[in-house]
Write a structure and sequence with these properties.
single chain; mainly alpha; 2 domains; 2 strands
């Protein structure tokens, strides 16, 4: 199973994914799972290291209306919608950087 994910080496996860999942990812997928935790003394909103990258990615995906809800019946069509959403995002980013 590790050969299917040969380009991945490190995965960041929320503090809720601690436990045996870390060892499972390493044993089955040969991936390192790094947990991004908030310190116990923090109060209020604080930007956590690397966590904002995932939140920003989900925000970009949710801009595509069809991905807001699970309308897709098959995982292949849902995967195609993610690709479509990211193509839209990247073309907008490329057009913006070359226009100025």
């Amino acid at each position: 199973m590790a050969c299917a994910h040969h380009r991945l080496a490190l995965i960041w996860a929320d503090g809720g994914y601690t436990g045996s999942l870390i060892e499972f990812c390493l044993a089955v997928f040969a991936l390192v799972l790094a947990i991004v935790k908030r310190s116990d003394g923090q109060k209020g909103f604080v930007v956590l290291h690397k966590r904002w990258i995932v939140e920003r990615f989900f925000a970009h995906l949710m801009r595509t209306r069809r991905l807001v809800r699970d309308f897709e019946r098959r995982t292949t069509s849902a995967e195609a919608m993610v690709y479509w959403s990211m193509i839209l995002f990247m073309t907008r980013r490329l057009a913006r950087s070359h226009s100025g």
